[in-house]
UniProtKB/TrEMBL annotation:
InterPro entries attached to this UniProt entry: ACMSD, Amidohydro-rel, Metal_Hydrolase
Name this polypeptide is given: 2-amino-3-carboxymuconate-6-semialdehyde decarboxylase
Keyword Lyase among record annotations: yes
Top-level lineage group: Bacteria
Species the sequence originates in: Mesobacillus selenatarsenatis (strain DSM 18680 / JCM 14380 / FERM P-15431 / SF-1)
């Protein structure tokens, strides 16, 4: 079984809601043809997308062609809108969460859903996480790597992580509003350099800020193979060693990095082998970033191309690990 953990979706009528709020910062969908659109912000093209980003039937056809049994649906990170008033961001999150839950209900053998929450207000975020988990039946929550420039280890987020652990809500952390964005307007560096760097900062903050130590039962998956984090761990460990006056942890950062899960979107088998060496196959989840241009085609290719994997390792990374991460029973023989 192949489960693509990292895919994004948006309601086709998304703009009808955001345009009601007013203001230029809200993302909108502007159709360019029958099968495509631009995501617009402040009158400028943020991202070109195809109709696979909203059309479930086209997604399913792609899945059948590329050998994917299940997609895990999550919102497009630009729609997090943490900058907005919490009450408006909550409405937007609810609309997207209802849309994803409805697709899961329509196609229960094809889709699993992750929701979004307005993390700029922790009380409201917990309320929507509660609804996602206990009313909509979504299997987890996708959150961004920072909230208006505030790292995730900030004390204001403690209660959110506490409740995610208590309710057994897995979290998928995806980069957004990347650091150094003002230096990356050319070459699409925001996607190729900014996002991996942003994810490394988020992961390091969760480790060094003590979140992973405080909540050992918390399930977190980092997008894009953890970005740059896995390759920075030796340097983080060295910092922990030589600056004992800054130390908040009983063990070095690399110890807590083993609590994370990592999607397999690392492009090259040598990178996947590095993840395997450091974290083990049990912590790697296949994800392609469907349906965007930087995605892996076909999903799971880097796993297929990695020499020397056992059948058990391959099957775990291609599907079983995703189901276990999301607390979905793995059927015998699947």
């Amino acid at each position: 079984m192949r489960v693509d953990f990292h895919t994004h979706i948006i309601p086709e009528n998304f703009s009808e809601l955001t345009q009601r709020f007013g203001g230029e910062k809200w993302p909108t969908l502007e159709r360019t043809c029958a099968c495509g659109a631009n995501i617009m912000i402040a009158g400028k093209v943020f991202r070109e997308v195809t109709d696979q980003v909203w059309d479930a039937e086209k997604r399913i056809k792609d899945m059948e062609r590329e050998g994917v049994d299940i997609q895990v649906l999550s919102p497009i990170p630009v729609t997090f809108s943490y900058w907005a008033p919490a009450e408006q961001a909550e409405i937007l999150a609810r609309v997207q969460n209802d849309f994803i839950a409805d697709l899961v209900s329509q196609y229960p053998t094809k889709f699993i859903g992750l929701g979004a929450v307005p993390l700029q207000n922790v009380e409201v975020a917990i309320r929507e996480m509660d609804r996602c988990k206990h009313e909509l039946g979504l299997s987890g929550i996708e959150i961004g790597t920072n909230v208006n420039g505030v790292n995730l280890d900030d004390p204001q987020f403690i209660e959110f992580f506490e409740m995610a652990e208590k309710w057994e809500v897995p979290l998928f952390i995806h980069p957004w509003e990347t650091l150094g964005k003002e230096r990356m307007p050319r070459h699409n560096l925001m996607y190729t350099v900014g996002m991996p760097s942003e994810t490394a900062l988020a992961g390091a903050s969760l480790i060094l800020g003590g979140i992973m130590e405080k909540f050992p039962g918390l399930k977190i998956c980092l997008a894009h193979g953890g970005g740059a984090l896995p390759y920075l761990l030796p340097r983080l460990d060295q910092g922990w060693k030589v600056w004992p006056h800054l130390r908040l942890l009983d063990k070095p950062p690399s110890h807590y990095a083993k609590q994370f899960y990592y999607d397999s979107l690392v492009n090259e088998p040598v990178n996947l082998n590095y993840l395997l060496q450091n974290f083990g196959h049990e912590r790697i989840i296949m994800g392609s970033d469907y349906p965007f241009l930087l995605r892996e085609v076909p999903p799971g290719k880097v796993i297929d191309d990695t020499v020397g994997l056992s059948k058990e390792q391959t099957e775990a990374m291609l599907g079983k690990n995703a189901l276990r991460f999301l607390n979905i029973p793995v059927k015998v023989g699947s």
